[in-house]
Amino acid sequence: MNYWLFKSEASTWSWEQQIAKGEEGEEWDGVRNYQARNNMRQMKLGDLGFFYLSQKEKSVVGVVEVCAEAHPDSTTDDERWECVDIKAVGSFERPVSLDDCKGDPRLSDMVLVNNTRLSVQPVTPEEWKVVCELGGYKG
Description:
Order of helices and strands: EHEHEEEHHEH
Strand content: 25-35%
Number of helices: 5
Helix content: 25-40%
Distance between the termini: 15 Å
Largest sheet: 6 strands, mixed
Low-confidence stretches: none
Mean pLDDT: 97
Number of strands: 6
Shape: globular
């Protein structure tokens, strides 16, 4: 299993909206960055990801699961762009902020800490454990 981080703006797609989609999940569409798209192409069913709210909150708030592997993005006719579908798995007891991540030396190499602009990014198993611990997520 691999781990990922998906960034969203709460005003565009909130954690509550993600939860409301239930088992069906939601297409993670609209990504127009080749590195982020390539990350999604590597995802497999059952991979887990952090749901990260960018902009104002700048916090990991929950865990999602990949429920459909890479397929054409329905928001464009440009066949270069693909996406995955994700479903909510569980909420963090407490949000883990970007400052929390930057302040924890165990996360110093995390992509989020070093490249805050990449919208879909890999997370190592060690980073996964640390962020889950900080958020009180037992999953």
